[in-house]
């Protein structure tokens, strides 16, 4: 830094060597092929500690919300940390749904030891296959048929004996009994022959009465016999059914006992008992079906719908749900069409990400999460309840008339990590009371890291890792240095490195591809420079248009000569993916009138609140410095010429102060010097943003108009560390064509832009004669006298009229 003493003030001009001043001499390598690739992430200690704390605290509500700038590697970082943590956690239980024999519309949830769900499902399928097979064999065996035949013969003989007994008793009463489809017919007989109705009618009345009396007795005997035959039939069916059950139970009991011995748990045992009981109760239906139909029905009804299978895990699950729709997150119940109607059962229940992440970690993106209807509300509900079932959105909203299921809810124990912007975090924190209960851990990702030897080494390892991953030509030392330069520039601070690794990777990839296109086996600094230039050119169309307007004087910026009340300020246009600096002419006019500074931008509603505040601070500075002995009696106006959009920020307040002091003192300002910086009421210059863009913006303007060796930019001293400039600016500084001065006070800037002493207060309380401050003071005092004289003259005229 060149320091020149002028009028008691130290004028500081940056040396070219101070810009982009860093080296890699502490590292000994030729290319990144010699550097081991990085493992893990660079920096982000604060975020790491917050996430680790969230992982360790198992209490309810300690979920994590990760905030940060896009491109800082939040997703990859979070996934890496959670996967490492998950390895040390136990594998959670498997979960499935089975048929509820008491209420089919409320399927039962059943849990298994990790990996046992898949085994039980397969074992259950084998069991049902075996059950169907052994039952088929048992019921189709010769022994079964023989036993059934014996039972039928025995009951048939008993039935025949009852009927023969009835017939004998009927003969004793002079009747014959016949069994017809309409029932039992009782016919009176004489000499072994039945009497016809005509013959009966021809009998005497006494004989008729005797036949009726005997018929009544026979009727009681018939009813009793039929009753005993019905009881015999019932007994036969029960015996038949009992025999089927005994046969079935004898066949399948060993199969179920074997499965029960393989799996622990009361729920599993009860389910197997329910299956066995249901088989026993539906044996008759089973016998009526063909073999294929039996297997299809049994395999569906007695199966396990395994919705969470952790058999392939080594530790807890880590699920990253990229599309958090209602069904993807909370599961759903599907339907099938049968007979023109929608039907469903427990086998149609599908799991969601929450089910699969249960016992581990679920990663979600806030923006996608909040864009899905009712997802955020339901996520809060299940986290607060600590349990989850499966329900379709239309059922939740009560707008579905379709018959559906109500599955058992499963205990929910997981850690949810949501990744979002700081804005979304603040919005949820302020507007949603449940958010504070559920997301008690905030992990903030930094967009920059300190530039020290350790982090530079890590950056080099990162470049090595990207080259290996993308199969790119490795970077030599010069190329690495240029990437570090870009990382500092991206961070807008020469003491920092950017942590927005997405953009760094883009530069590495494009540089490596350019090297490959050139047929080079190594990526050099020239490839990185070309890639950087190409990335800028794809986005700088508007910048080129502004430069063209400056070159053609359509934007009336002057970069040579001197003008009173006029200075070149610097502004930044931010297009989102690209920002660039543009000089703007700031003019000031002073005149007698109502005291105060008129901000033309503010009067035209083209001033933001911060800029309006800066103008008020400027008034305070003027009053405190020059109006200690008399009130300010000057009216001033400040304008940003050819600016038709809103002006915001306070970075132009130093330039506004210089323009205003020049207008008052009538001391011209060098137009080849642009100014940026904000001031406080003490006249101290404060740091501002966009220093790189502002310096380069004025450099381009001077370059298009032609250098005269006197041009340059004044910046706040505190902003010197923010300068990470392009090579052509550094070269111009070395040639003496362009300069950068740093200032701490308004007086520092006055001396640079005017070439005159700013002027300090002497012991008498006056400014040094011949200084700019003295001229300002003198002019303000003169204006005060003129204004007082004008008031007196007006008062005299009023008195004369009276």
Describe this protein with a few key phrases.
802 residues; alpha/beta; Helicase, Ruva Protein, domain 3; Rossmann fold; nine-stranded mixed β-sheet; five-stranded parallel β-sheet; 50% helix; elongated
Architecture overview:
With 802 residues, this protein is of the alpha/beta class. The protein has four domains: 31-39 and 447-537, Helicase, Ruva Protein, domain 3; 44-92 and 313-445, Rossmann fold, CATH 3.40.50.300; 125-298, no CATH class; 559-760, 2-Layer Sandwich (Ribosomal Protein S5, domain 2). 50% of the residues lie in helices and 18% in strands. The strands form eleven sheets. A nine-stranded mixed β-sheet has the order 1-2-34-33-30-25-26-28-27, with helices on both faces. The longest helix has 58 residues, at 205-262.
Strand order of the largest sheet: 1-2-34-33-30-25-26-28-27
Architecture per CATH nomenclature, i.e. the level-2 architecture of the largest domain: 2-Layer Sandwich
Sheet/helix structural class: alpha/beta
What form results from the Cα inertia axes? Answer: elongated
Largest sheet: 9 strands, mixed
Query: How many domains make up the coordinates?
Result: 4
């Amino acid at each position: 830094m060149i320091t020149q003493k002028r009028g008691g003030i130290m004028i500081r001009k940056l040396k070219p060597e101070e810009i982009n001043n860093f080296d890699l001499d502490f590292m000994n390598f030729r290319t990144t092929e010699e550097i081991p690739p990085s493992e893990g992430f660079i920096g982000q200690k604060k975020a790491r500690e917050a996430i680790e704390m969230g992982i360790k605290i198992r209490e309810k509500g300690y979920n994590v919300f990760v905030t940060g700038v896009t491109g800082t590697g939040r997703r990859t970082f979070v996934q890496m940390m959670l996967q490492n943590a998950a390895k040390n956690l136990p594998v959670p239980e498997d979960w499935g749904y089975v048929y509820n024999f008491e209420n089919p519309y409320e399927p039962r949830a059943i849990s298994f030891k990790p990996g046992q769900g898949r085994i039980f499902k397969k074992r259950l399928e084998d069991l049902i296959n075996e059950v169907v097979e052994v039952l088929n064999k048992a019921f189709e065996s010769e022994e079964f048929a023989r036993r059934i035949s014996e039972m039928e013969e025995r009951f048939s003989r008993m039935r025949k004996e009852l009927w023969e007994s009835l017939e004998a008793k009927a003969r004793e009463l002079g009747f014959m009994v016949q069994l017809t489809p309409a029932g039992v017919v009782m016919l009176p007989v004489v000499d072994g022959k039945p009497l016809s109705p005509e013959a009966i009618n021809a009998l005497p009345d006494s004989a008729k009465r005797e036949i009726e009396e005997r018929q009544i007795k026979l009727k009681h005997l018939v009813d009793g016999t039929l009753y005993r035959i019905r009881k015999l039939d019932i007994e036969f069916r029960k015996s038949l059914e009992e025999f089927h059950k005994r046969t079935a139970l004898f066949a399948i009991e060993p199969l179920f006992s074997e499965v029960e011995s393989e799996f622990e748990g009361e729920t599993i045992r009860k389910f197997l008992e329910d299956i066995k009981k249901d088989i026993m109760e539906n044996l008759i239906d089973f016998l009526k079906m063909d073999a294929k139909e039996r297997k299809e029905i049994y395999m569906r009804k007695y199966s396990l719908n395994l919705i969470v299978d952790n058999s392939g895990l080594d530790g807890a699950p880590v699920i990253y749900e990229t599309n958090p729709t209602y069904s993807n997150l909370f599961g759903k119940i599907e339907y099938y069409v049968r007979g023109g109607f929608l039907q469903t059962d427990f086998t149609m229940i599908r799991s969601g990400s929450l089910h699969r992440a249960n016992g581990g970690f679920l990663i979600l993106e806030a923006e996608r999460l909040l864009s899905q209807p009712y997802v955020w509300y339901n996520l809060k509900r299940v986290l607060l309840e600590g349990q989850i079932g499966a329900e379709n959105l239309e059922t939740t909203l009560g707008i579905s008339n379709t018959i559906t299921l109500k599955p058992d809810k499963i205990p929910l124990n997981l850690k949810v990590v949501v990744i979002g912007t700081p804005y979304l975090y603040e919005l949820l924190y302020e507007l949603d009371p449940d958010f504070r209960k559920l997301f008690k851990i905030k992990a903030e990702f930094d967009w920059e890291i300190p530039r020290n030897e350790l982090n530079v080494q890590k950056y080099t390892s990162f470049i090595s890792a990207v080259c290996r991953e993308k199969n790119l030509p490795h970077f030599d030392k010069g190329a690495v240095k240029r990437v570090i330069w870009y990382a500092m520039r991206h961070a807008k601070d020469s003491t920092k490195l950017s942590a927005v690794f997405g953009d760094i990777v883009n530069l590495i990839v494009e540089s490596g591809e350019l090297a490959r296109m050139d047929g080079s086996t190594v990526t050099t600094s020239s490839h990185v420079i070309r890639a950087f230039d190409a990335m800028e050119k794809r986005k700088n169309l508007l910048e080129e248009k502004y430069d063209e307007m400056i070159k053609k004087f359509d934007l009336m910026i002057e970069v040579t000569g001197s003008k009173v009340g006029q200075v070149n300020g610097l502004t930044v246009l931010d297009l989102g993916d690209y920002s660039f600096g543009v000089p703007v002419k700031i003019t000031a006019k002073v005149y007698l009138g109502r005291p105060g500074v008129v901000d033309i931008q503010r009067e035209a509603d083209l001033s933001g609140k911060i800029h309006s505040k800066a103008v008020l601070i400027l008034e305070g500075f003027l009053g405190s410095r020059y109006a200690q002995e008399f009130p300010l009696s000057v009216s001033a106006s400040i304008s940003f010429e050819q600016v038709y959009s809103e002006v915001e920020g306070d970075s132009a307040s130093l330039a506004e102060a210089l323009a205003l002091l020049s207008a008052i003192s009538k001391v011209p300002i060098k137009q080849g010097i642009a100014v940026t910086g904000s001031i406080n009421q003490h006249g101290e210059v404060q740091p501002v943003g966009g220093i790189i863009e502002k310096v380069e913006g004025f450099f381009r303007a001077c370059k298009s108009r032609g250098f005269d060796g006197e041009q340059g930019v004044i910046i706040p001293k505190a902003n010197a560390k923010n300068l990470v400039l392009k090579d052509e600016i550094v070269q111009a500084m070395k040639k003496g064509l362009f300069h950068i001065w740093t200032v701490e006070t308004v007086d520092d800037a006055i001396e640079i832009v005017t070439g005159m002493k700013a002027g300090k207060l002497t012991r008498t309380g006056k400014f040094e004669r011949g200084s700019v401050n003295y001229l300002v003071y003198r002019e303000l005092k003169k204006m005060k006298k003129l204004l007082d004289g004008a008031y007196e003259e007006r008062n005299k005229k009023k008195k004369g009229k009276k």
